[in-house]
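ENTRY TYPE: paired fold submission
RECORD: A
CONTENT: sequence, then structure tokens
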Amino acid sequence: MATRKREKELARAKFERQQARRTERHGSQRRLQIGIGIAVAVVIIAAIVGVSLANRDTSLEATPTESASSSASPSASPSSTASATAAPIVCASPGTPRADDMTFPSAPTAPATLPTTMTLRTNCGDIVISLDPKAPATVASEAFLAQQGFYNNTSCHRLTTNIIYVLQCGDPKGDGTGGPGYKVPDENLPTGADNNYPAGTVAMANAGPGTSGSQFFLVYQDTTLSPDYTIWGRVTQGLDILQQVAAVGTKNPDGDGPPTQPLFIQSAAVSN
């Protein structure tokens, strides 16, 4: 038991470090823009004088996962695992990611009447989310982003399969550092109890209090996290898709990275 508790504590600590790095990267983007402009000028000059400059690749660095699951036996909870009789999913090839060219000056104001459902149309089938009215600012933001096409043609960039059981989406940059240009306050936070983010939960990823943007995670197996991530919905259709994508694993051997079976959001829409 002590070993299991220590594993959970280490997983939570890892997550918080990753969030801090994401905050630092996001906060430095303005400064980097200046450097990028200079680099472009250098490339142009080098081209004129016939010097060939090689492009520098940046490897994908994952961001928000979550903390530990307390269930010693995942199969003990029917909601936590894919049904043995579920039909295998059939996924189309992922599409072409859209350009990361959408930002907004401020978060939208929550309307008097909020939508009740969001549908993510993916290359593996539809994922339907029932929106939680106890998170009005977050639901208003998610609905606004869906209506603006922010989530269209974006990939779910991070899957975790070891202690933490989530698939993270909502970043057009695809590396965990993207966002809509504004922040949304935290709301509808759970308690710190075991399995406080049960299978089917949809919650915001963040880099600290009050920093939710566009990235969110879909919980495919009961998970225990620090109670710091706004819950704004629940998957009512397509949980089997998430579970089967998770069953294929990640591209990284430690079970934390891009999913081996890509999940690509073709479009997102809300309805009442």
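RECORD: B
CONTENT: sequence, then structure tokens
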Amino acid sequence: MSQRAIDQFLAMLAAERGVARNTLIAYRTDLEDAAAHIGDLVQASPDGLRRLSAHWAELAASSVARKASALRGFYAFLEAEGLRTDNPSTALARPTVRRSLPKCLSHADIERLFGTIAERLGVANPAPLDLRLSALIELLYGSGLRASELMSLPRSALRSDQPFLILRGKGGRERLVPISDRARAAVAAWRAHVPEDSAWLFPSGKGYLSRIRLYQIVQDLAVASGIDPTAISPHVLRHAFATHLLEGGADLRALQSMLGHADIATTQIYTHVDAAHLVALVNARHPLVDLPARSN
């Protein structure tokens, strides 16, 4: 009975909530592993789930949190469907997961990357692959696109008269992404080398550039720029986009919208800006700055 209920639960997540395929695969694995340990999940008791929590004791807190989340969602679904009259998931552990700060590049690192690109483009006839490199990095760092979003851009996605993109990201959520003038110029220069019958802006074979190839391209650029390649990836460039915008005074809610985060708590991880910058901001911008200090 567990397997049928798991299938129904995952089908609901896909159809009604637009949950990503990788998340569905992880949830299926977690639920099937739980069933293998305690038996039929539909009939499981709170004691059975406590035993399951004990079984997870050696796992990382983040793994436990994901597994518990899958089971809580599953039992909420069973209740809603009338397959259970209670919800035993209150017996599951609630580990505290500390989010690690994302890797981030300094402004100097970013200048090195774009300096290398500028050198390659500063010739009479830049190589098409260098034009592609410029477009990729401008969109990664200049707009904070996810690698999957960048790779799957249609050839016609950006227009010279349209300073934004409408993207469908995680969970099928649409968002508006501003595109800088220099990014649009870089894309236009690269698109001149993309066949007009190509469906994709960054084609490769019969499809589009793979995430692995994008990772390799970013790593090669790091090496050429004198940056430790282990410190950089497409996702690190997205982190740098977010962090540097916040350092420049961007609004957290606006950043949430640009990054496509459903929850503002996800965006708040990018608030690891330099403490000195925050102190200077308060000293310069707080309303109390203009009030005379009280003498004792």
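NOTES ON RECORD B: The chain has a mean pLDDT of 81. DSSP finds 13 helices and four strands in the chain.
STATUS: closed
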